[in-house]
Design a protein that fits this description.
mainly alpha, 57% helix
């Protein structure tokens, strides 16, 4: 089972690594400004939204889901 807080933490970690503010990413993706915090609290996120975030952050959805510790898309 996937823990939404863990996924939100990985999104935040990747945002920090890419030097991007969550607010800017969510605006660019036309998502609500509270999307990550709501997700961390257990609200469901669509697979399309998760894929769009992964694409934006240049990492795999598997990385965000915690299925791998390597964010590199090419490995």
């Amino acid at each position: 089972m996937y823990m939404t807080q863990d996924i939100a933490d990985r999104i935040k970690l990747r945002l920090k690594f890419k030097h991007v503010r969550a607010k800017d990413m969510l605006s660019d993706l036309n998502m609500g400004v509270n999307a990550i915090s709501e997700f961390a609290k257990g609200k469901q996120m669509s697979c399309i939204a998760l894929a769009r975030i992964a694409d934006y952050l240049d990492c795999s959805a598997d990385y965000l889901l915690g299925r791998t510790d390597n964010p590199d898309l090419n490995r």
